[in-house]
C-alpha cells in the first residue's frame, strides 16, 4: 500500500493532483482545499489511502492524519463509500465533522453532497461513540487559502464537479467570496453549498 507521497506537483486538477516521485506520476484524488494548498512545480507532500477495486486502484490524498482517519471512519458506515467520504472532507473540516457526529447535528451532515437525512442519521448512530472530542489540534486542514486569483475558479470547478451547472455555481461563488474573502477554500465551499440549498 502507498501510505504517503512526496515529490514535485506536476498537475492540479478539478478533484485531483499529480505528484511525481522518482520519475513516476501518481494521480491522487483530493479535496479542493488540499489542492489549493499545493503549488504546481513545487514539492508537495500528502498522506494517502489506496482503495482497490476489481477494475481500479485509486489513491486518495490528505493534508494530515485527522483527515485520513475520518476518511476511513466514515466508510465503516453502510452506504458511505470513498467518494462520499471525500465529499465530507471537502465540505467539513475534521473538527466540524466530529462535532456534528457527536451531537447529532443532522443538518450539518446533510451539507455533504450525496448524504441525505437517513444516511446522516446512520452516521451519527454508528459513529457517535467512535469520534474523539474536537480539540484545537484537530481540523487544521484546509486553513490555507488558494493562490491569489484562483479561489473563485477553484470553487467553480469544485461545484461543477459536484453536479452544479456554471449558471448555478457562479452566483453562489461570487457571494461566498465577497462575504468571506479571507476564509479558507473549505469554508467558502461550504458557504456556497448553503446558498445553493444544500443546507
From TrEMBL:
Domain Holliday junction DNA helicase RuvA C-terminal: 153-196
Highest taxon, organism lineage: Bacteria
Alphabetical UniProt keywords: ATP-binding, Cytoplasm, DNA damage, DNA recombination, DNA repair, DNA-binding, Helicase, Hydrolase, Nucleotide-binding
Any one GO molecular function term: ATP binding
Spans annotated as Domain III: 147-199
Domain DNA helicase Holliday junction RuvA type: residue ranges: 1-61
GO biological process annotation, one example: DNA repair
Coiled coil: none
UniProt subcellular location: Cytoplasm
Chief location of this protein within or outside the cell: cytoplasm
Entry's Gene Ontology cellular component terms: cytoplasm; Holliday junction helicase complex; Holliday junction resolvase complex
One protein family per Pfam: RuvA_N
Keyword match Metal-binding: no
Subunit and interaction comment: Homotetramer. Forms an RuvA(8)-RuvB(12)-Holliday junction (HJ) complex. HJ DNA is sandwiched between 2 RuvA tetramers; dsDNA enters through RuvA and exits via RuvB. An RuvB hexamer assembles on each DNA strand where it exits the tetramer. Each RuvB hexamer is contacted by two RuvA subunits (via domain III) on 2 adjacent RuvB subunits; this complex drives branch migration. In the full resolvosome a probable DNA-RuvA(4)-RuvB(12)-RuvC(2) complex forms which resolves the HJ.
Family stated for the protein in its record: Belongs to the RuvA family.
Function: The RuvA-RuvB-RuvC complex processes Holliday junction (HJ) DNA during genetic recombination and DNA repair, while the RuvA-RuvB complex plays an important role in the rescue of blocked DNA replication forks via replication fork reversal (RFR). RuvA specifically binds to HJ cruciform DNA, conferring on it an open structure. The RuvB hexamer acts as an ATP-dependent pump, pulling dsDNA into and through the RuvAB complex. HJ branch migration allows RuvC to scan DNA until it finds its consensus sequence, where it cleaves and resolves the cruciform DNA.
Domain notes: Has three domains with a flexible linker between the domains II and III and assumes an 'L' shape. Domain III is highly mobile and contacts RuvB.
Matching HAMAP family: DNA_HJ_migration_RuvA
Protein name: Holliday junction branch migration complex subunit RuvA
Organism: Tsukamurella paurometabola (strain ATCC 8368 / DSM 20162 / CCUG 35730 / CIP 100753 / JCM 10117 / KCTC 9821 / NBRC 16120 / NCIMB 702349 / NCTC 13040) (Corynebacterium paurometabolum)
